[in-house]
Specification:
The structure holds two protein chains of two kinds. In chain A, the strands form five sheets. In chain A, strands 8-10-7-11-9-12-13 form a seven-stranded mixed beta sheet. By secondary structure, chain A is α+β, with helices and mostly antiparallel strands. The longest helix of chain A has 20 residues. Chain A has 25 helices and 28 strands. Chain B has one domain: Rossmann fold (3-Layer(aba) Sandwich). In chain B, the strands form two sheets. Chain B has a nine-stranded mixed beta sheet with strand order 2-1-3-4-11-10-9-6-7, sandwiched between helices. In chain B, strands 5-8 form a two-stranded antiparallel sheet. The longest helix of chain B is centred in the first third of the chain and has 12 residues. In chain B, about 60% of the residues are buried. The chains are: A alpha+beta, B alpha/beta. Chains A and B meet through helix 8 and helix 10 of A and helix 1 and strand 6 of B.
C-alpha cells in the first residue's frame, strides 16, 4: 500500500518537488523514498511550510526589543506587557482555500490562527482580519465577499472571541486571487508560555481534538502553486472547520496546561500530523515514533499517507510530562474530545511512523526542517517612478462630486455591512472597534491592548521599498492615534509567483523597506506568514505585505479616538503637507486606475519625522490636550476630516488651502495626524509643537451640519454620510 | 445574592455574565457544569448565558435544553427562583418550555452584532424594577437567531399580561411586535436577546444593562 503507484519521478513532480529535491531526498535516505516518505518530504519542503523562497530575506527583519519574549520561530510571537503578563499574536493567510471555498476557507483561517495563539498558553482575546477582493463588478466578487465574511463571523462568533479591527479592499488585481489574512491576539501570564520543543526522550505523545479524516490532504502543496482555470477542482483540498470543537479545544487546552501535564505542545495546521511531530522533535533535537493505529480516525481504511498528510482541523499534539497520561486523557475527555497517546519521543533523531504493524516511514528529522531547500531566487528591482505633486495634475472639475467619489469609493466607504456580522463585544473587554485601531482591555486591569492591520498596496506596487516602509509606519501611526505605545508587529506577506524576478523584486523591496521602518520605530517583527503564488493564469496580485501591529495603553482612560468632536473645536494638522499625489487615491479615482496602474511614486516616509511627530501626538494624548485624533492616510486631509465629522455627526469648515487645494486636501504626505482641540487648548498645543520642532497648523473648525473647505467642496453632512454608508449595503443587495 | 451561571459546551458569554454579576453583587457566581444533575448549593438566581451551546447544531438551544442540569433549573424556576436567559440562554429557555415562543433566524438571514435601543415595557418585574417604564436603553445584540416568534394569541396574551419586558426601538431582526425580552407568566423567568452583561461595566462606557442585575439585587435585599 505504501509502495509508489507510479514512477517515483512522476509522483515527485505531482507533489511539487523538483528533480534536484528528489535527488537530495534519495541522498539523505540512501535509498528510494516510499509513498509516505515522499509525501512527508514534499509537504515539509513546500513553500508554505519551508519558506524556501523567503527565508534568506525574512532574516533581514529586526525581531527583538526590550519587550519581546519570543520572536519568530514558534507558533506565535510573545511580548511582555508588564505586570507579569504577556500578549501573544500572529497573522496568517488562508488565501488559496478561501478563493476556492470562501466560507470554509475563511472559517478555517480563523480557526488556524486561534490555535497558533492558544497553543502558546494564551487565551485568545481578539481577532482581526485583512481582506482583499477583486473588483466589485467582477462576477465572482460578491459571492466571495459574502462567503468570506460569513465564514469569519461563523467561526469567530461561535468560539466567542471578538473581532475588533480589520480592513477590506477591492481591486481588479485580486480578481483571481483574493486575500484572507486573519490575526489573533491572546493573553497569558509571562511565566506560563508553552513551547513546541520536545524537552527529552521517552516522553509520551498525546493526540487530542477532532478525529483525523481525509480532508485537506496536500493543502500546503496547493497553497504553494499558482492557480489556473481548473483550480476550483481543488475544492477537496480545502479543510472543513468546526468552531464548536475549536471552542472546546481552547477550554480543554488551557485546562490541560493549568494542570501541569504539558511538557510541549503544537497544533496541527498545514501538513497536520507530519509537520507537528517533525517540528516538536526537531526543536527538541530528538526523534519521535508514532503509531497511526492509535490515531482517532473519522473514516475507515485510511492509509498511512492520508493520515500523515490530512489537514483535518481542530487537532493538537502534546508531549506530556512523565506520569501525566491519565490526567491528560481525563481533561480532554471531560470536554468531549478525542484523545489518545499515540507514541513517544526517542533518541533516534528519526521520525518513525508505524501503521498496521509495519514501519511506513523512517526519515531523519534534520533534513526535513533545517536542511529544507533555501533559495536565493533572482530578483529585479521595480523601476523607479517620479513623484507627483499637485501642480502637475489637475484639480477636480467638480469638487463636491470628487469628495463624494472619495468617501463612496469601495475602499473608503463604510464597511458596516461587514463588521456588524462579527461579534465585537463578547468577552466584555472591547473598548472600541471603530477608527484607527481596535482597543481591548486587559481583563481585570485598567490597561488596554491596541491593535491594527494595515497595508497600502498602491504604494507597494509603485515603489516596494517606500511602500514597505509606509506599511509599518501606518500601523505604528494608527496605534499612536489611540494613544498606545506601539510594541511589535506580525506580518503577512502576500505576493505573486516568486519564480518571476519582478515579483521577487517586489518581495525583497517590501521586506527591506519594512525592516528599515521596524528598526527606526523600534517595532520588531515577532511572528508572521508568507503567502506566495497568489497568481492566476500568469497574473500576480499587487504586492500586499500586511502588518498587524500591537501596542499597549497603560491606562485606558487616557485613550484617544475619532469620537468626541464638538462644535467650536479647532482642527489641527500635525506634520508637514507638501501635496504628494503620486500613487494617491485621488489620482486613482480621477484617472480610473487600479492599484497596479496608478501613476507616480508614493509619498516618501521620513522615519525620523514619523517618530518625532508620533511621539509628540502620543504625548498630547497622554497629557490630555486632545482625545480626538485620527491619522491622515488614503484621501488625505479631506478623508480624515470626513472621518471625524461622520463619526460625531458634527460638520466642519476647513480654512483656505495654502498650496494647490487638491494637493492640500487629497495629498497623502506621511507622518501626519488630524486633531480636534478645545479652542482654549489650541495655542498651548501650537507652543508645545514649536518647542518640539514639530510642524503644526490650524486647518479649520468644527460646527454646523455641512462639510466645507474654502474654495473647494461644500456639502451637507447628511449627503456625505449617505454616500459613505450606502455603498456597501447597496452593492451587497 | 448568590448567583449561578450554567456552563454548556459552547457557552461563550458565561465568563462575561460572571464578570457582571460579581461586579454588581460583590459575590462570585458559581459556575455550574451542564452535566451536573443538581446545584451543590441552591443559588438565589440563575443565568443561562449566551454562546453557541452544542454549536447551535440541530437548532439553537435545542440540545442544551435537554442537558442534565436543566431539570434542576426548571425545578428552581417553578419554585419562583429568578432565572435569566440571555441570547442563546433565551433560546434554551424557550426550547425547554420555561418561556413562550421561539427564536427564528434573523429577518435578513445575517448574524448581527450592534448596539440596539430598547424600551422598558414593564418596569414591574424582578428584573426591571430598577428602570422606569418607557426608559430607553442602549444594549448590544449579537445573534443569528433572534427573530422572536409566537402565534398572535400568545403575543396578545404576553402583551396583555405585561410579559413583554423589553422592546426594540428599531427592530433589528424581524421579531414579532418588536419584542426583545419576555418573562413567564409568574414573572420570575426572563429571556432576552440583547446582552445586558455587556452593558454593565462603567469602564467600558455603557451601564444601561446593569439595571437587570441591580433590580434583582434590590429584590433580594
Amino acid at each position: 500500500m505504501n509502495a509508489p503507484t507510479k514512477p517515483i519521478e512522476e509522483l515527485a513532480t505531482e507533489f511539487g518537488l523538483t528533480v534536484e529535491e528528489l535527488g537530495t531526498i534519495r541522498k539523505r535516505l540512501n535509498r528510494e523514498p516510499n509513498l509516505v516518505e515522499l509525501g512527508v518530504f514534499s509537504v515539509m519542503w513546500s513553500e508554505h511550510c519551508s519558506y524556501k523562497s523567503s527565508r534568506i530575506h525574512l532574516a533581514k527583519f529586526p525581531t527583538d526589543n526590550e519587550h519581546v519574549i519570543q520572536g519568530p520561530g514558534e507558533n506565535a510571537g510573545v511580548i511582555d506587557i508588564g505586570d507579569g503578563q504577556a500578549a501573544i499574536f500572529k497573522m496568517e493567510s488562508h488565501n488559496h482555500p478561501s478563493f476556492i471555498e470562501p466560507y470554509q476557507g475563511a472559517a478555517t483561517g480563523v480557526g488556524g490562527i486561534l490555535r497558533d495563539v492558544f497553543t502558546m498558553g494564551a487565551r485568545p482575546v481578539a481577532l482581526l482580519n485583512a481582506l482583499r477582493f477583486g473588483a466589485p463588478d467582477h462576477p465572482k466578487t460578491k459571492r466571495l465577499v459574502k462567503g468570506v465574511v460569513a465564514g469569519i463571523g461563523g467561526y469567530g462568533n461561535c468560539v466567542g472571541v471578538p473581532t475588533v479591527a480589520g480592513e477590506v479592499n477591492f481591486d481588479p488585481g485580486y480578481n483571481g486571487n483574493i486575500l484572507v489574512n486573519a490575526m489573533a491576539v491572546g493573553l497569558a501570564d509571562a511565566d506560563k508560555i508553552f513551547y513546541s520543543a520536545a524537552p527529552g526522550v521517552g516522553l509520551k505523545v498525546m493526540y487530542f481534538g477532532s478525529k483525523t479524516g481525509r480532508d485537506g490532504i496536500h493543502g500546503a502543496t496547493m497553497a504553494s502553486a499558482e492557480f489556473d482555470d481548473a483550480s476550483e477542482e481543488k475544492r477537496p483540498t480545502v479543510q472543513v472547520g468546526d468552531p464548536f470543537t475549536e471552542k472546546l479545544l481552547i477550554e480543554a487546552t488551557l485546562e490541560l496546561m493549568a494542570s501541569g501535564a504539558v511538557a510541549a505542545i503544537q497544533d496541527m495546521g498545514a501538513a497536520g500530523l507530519t509537520c507537528s511531530s517533525v517540528e516538536m522533535a526537531d526543536k527538541g533535537d530528538c526523534g519521535i515514533e508514532i503509531d497511526l493505529d492509535l490515531v482517532p480516525q473519522r473514516e475507515d481504511n485510511m492509509t498511512a499517507y492520508e493520515m500523515m498528510l490530512s489537514e483535518s482541523q481542530e487537532r493538537m499534539l502534546v508531549i506530556l510530562k512523565p506520569g501525566m497520561e491519565q490526567t491528560g486523557l481525563e481533561i480532554i475527555q471531560k470536554w468531549g474530545l478525542d484523545a489518545a497517546v499515540i507514541g513517544e519521543t526517542t533518541d533516534s533523531k528519526h521520525m518513525v511512523v508505524k501503521h498496521q504493524g509495519e514501519v511506513v516511514c523512517d526519515v531523519p528529522i534534520r533534513p526535513l526542517s533545517d536542511d529544507a531547500p533555501k533559495l536565493d531566487r533572482p530578483h529585479t528591482p521595480t523601476p523607479v517612478r517620479e513623484p507627483v505633486i499637485a501642480d502637475e495634475v489637475s484639480g477636480p472639475a467638480d469638487w463636491n462630486k470628487s469628495l463624494i467619489e472619495i468617501v463612496s469609493h469601495p475602499n473608503m466607504a463604510s464597511k458596516r455591512w461587514v463588521w456588524t456580522q462579527y461579534d465585537r463585544s463578547v468577552m466584555n473587554d472591547t473598548i472600541t472597534t471603530a477608527g484607527n485601531a481596535g482597543l481591548v482591555r486587559v481583563h481585570g486591569t485598567d490597561k488596554a491592548l491596541a491593535m491594527t492591520s494595515d497595508c497600502t498596496p498602491r504604494y507597494c506596487v509603485a515603489a516596494p521599498y517606500e511602500g514597505g516602509k509606509q506599511v509599518v509606519a501606518e500601523a505604528w501611526r494608527n496605534l499612536t492615534a489611540v494613544g498606545a505605545t506601539p510594541i511589535a508587529i506580525t506580518d503577512n506577506l502576500n505576493f505573486g509567483n516568486p519564480e518571476r524576478p519582478d515579483v521577487m523584486g517586489q518581495f525583497v523591496g517590501c521586506i527591506e523597506g519594512m525592516a528599515e521602518a521596524c528598526k527606526a520605530l523600534n517595532f520588531p517583527v515577532i511572528s508572521g506568514n508568507v503567502s506566495l503564488y497568489n497568481e492566476t493564469n500568469g497574473v500576480g496580485i499587487p504586492p500586499t505585505p500586511v502588518v498587524g501591529g500591537v501596542g499597549v495603553l497603560a491606562n485606558l482612560e487616557d485613550r484617544a479616538s475619532v469620537q468626541g468632536l464638538r462644535g467650536g473645536d479647532v482642527l489641527m494638522v500635525i506634520g508637514e503637507t507638501h501635496g504628494h499625489l503620486g500613487a494617491s487615491l485621488y489620482l486613482q479615482i480621477q484617472k480610473g486606475q487600479t492599484f497596479a496602474t496608478v501613476e507616480g511614486a508614493p509619498p516618501p516616509v521620513d522615519l525620523t519625522v514619523e517618530k518625532r511627530n508620533g511621539d509628540f501626538v502620543r504625548q498630547l494624548i497622554a497629557e490630555g490636550h486632545t482625545r480626538t485624533v485620527t491619522d491622515l492616510s488614503d484621501g488625505g486631509l479631506a478623508a480624515a476630516a470626513c472621518d471625524l465629522a461622520l463619526a460625531n455627526d458634527v460638520g466642519l469648515r476647513l480654512a483656505p488651502a495654502p498650496i494647490a487645494a487638491h494637493g492640500w486636501l487629497y495629498g497623502e504626505d506621511q507622518g501626519r495626524y488630524l486633531l480636534a482641540l478645545r479652542p482654549d487648548a489650541a495655542q498651548a498645543v501650537l507652543a508645545l509643537a514649536t518647542e518640539a520642532g514639530v510642524p503644526a497648523e490650524i486647518v479649520g473648525e468644527a460646527g454646523g451640519d455641512r462639510l466645507t473647505a474654502a474654495g473647494a467642496f461644500d456639502l451637507p453632512l447628511a449627503e456625505v454620510k449617505a454616500a459613505y454608508e450606502n455603498w456597501m449595503p447597496e452593492y451587497m443587495k | 445574592m448568590k448567583s449561578a451561571v450554567i456552563v454548556f459546551p459552547g457557552s461563550n458569554c458565561d465568563r462575561d455574565a460572571a464578570w457582571a454579576l460579581e461586579m454588581i453583587t460583590g459575590q462570585k457566581p458559581d459556575m455550574v457544569w451542564y452535566g451536573d444533575s443538581d446545584f451543590k448549593t441552591k443559588p438565589d438566581m440563575i443565568v443561562v448565558p449566551g454562546g453557541f451551546s452544542y454549536g447551535d447544531y440541530l437548532r439553537s438551544g435545542a440540545m442544551a435544553s435537554n442537558a442534565p442540569i436543566m431539570k434542576a433549573v426548571k425545578s428552581l424556576a417553578e419554585q419562583g427562583r429568578p432565572v435569566i436567559g440571555i441570547c442563546n440562554g433565551f433560546q434554551i429557555l424557550t426550547e425547554c418550555g420555561l418561556l413562550p415562543g421561539a427564536l427564528l433566524r434573523n429577518r435578513d438571514q445575517l448574524f448581527i452584532c450592534d448596539d440596539t435601543e430598547l424600551v422598558v415595557e414593564n418596569a414591574n418585574t424582578p428584573f426591571t424594577r430598577g428602570y422606569d417604564k418607557g426608559q430607553r436603553l442602549t444594549v448590544p445584540i449579537a445573534h443569528h437567531d433572534g427573530n422572536y416568534f409566537a402565534d398572535a394569541e400568545t403575543l396578545d396574551r404576553l402583551e396583555g399580561e405585561g410579559q413583554v419586558a423589553f422592546r426594540y426601538v428599531n427592530n433589528p431582526n424581524g421579531s414579532a411586535r418588536d419584542i426583545a425580552g419576555v418573562t413567564n407568566a409568574k414573572g420570575n423567568v426572563l429571556g432576552l436577546m440583547p446582552h445586558p452583561e455587556r452593558a454593565s461595566d462603567p469602564k467600558l462606557g455603557n451601564t444601561d444593562g446593569a439595571g437587570v442585575f441591580k433590580s434583582l439585587l434590590m429584590e433580594m435585599a
